[in-house]
Give the backbone structure.
Amino acid sequence: MKKSVVFLLPLLVMCGPVFAQTTQQTDVQTVAVPVQDVAVVQQPEQPTESKPPKPGTYFKVQVSHGDFDLYGSNYRFNDLAVEIEEHWAKRHAGFAGFSVGYRKEDFAAGDYGHYVNGKFFWKAETHGFFVKPGLGVEWGKPSPRFEQTSFTYKSGALASYRRVYIERNAWMPVGVKDTGTLYPFFDVSIGQKVGPLLLEAGTRVGIDKFIVDTFQFNNGSLVFQGLDGEYRFVPTVYVGVGVRLF
């Protein structure tokens, strides 16, 4: 029995460090696992910041269409317009940009139906889509599209007639001097930026002053009944495409 104890003692002494090392490694591993787990859980997610809209200058072409009734007459027409539109990187006095443009009505006529306009606009934009209301003024020489005359007959004879036209309130540099118009308008559009292109659709409402002249026949004589003037809305819808210049 004593010999067995003497024989086992050296063996235990030799194997002791190995058991201790194994136990130490096992302890280290069991502690390291929860530490790694806690580190993963505590990592905060980095918020994604939305990039501000990029500034740019666009050349745009628009086609507009009008179809509405006014003073008992139906008006249906198409116009063509071009614009240079500037989008700012930062707002100025609340506005997001401005545009200047030219609009042509009555394509068959060359001496009238020419307009130039300017507009400031607001804009709400996200992920390339935008909503853009604007306010501007337009100056030019109108075509006779809104000049209408209606007649009233009684017992087969002409009793009265009414003439409707837009009031000319602005000076023109060529031709008859006081045959131009200067009126405000507002519009709102939705659109999308696709690379260098800008796709847009919206509605535009002009605020024009119309004059109504009424004449009546009395005992064979033409008698002027009166003149009324009132501001009326002139609505159109449009689609357009633009390309970025700068």
User: Anything to note?
Assistant: The chain has a mean pLDDT of 83. The first strand starts at residue 56 and ends at 70. Residues 56-244 form a domain with the Porin fold (CATH 2.40.160.20).
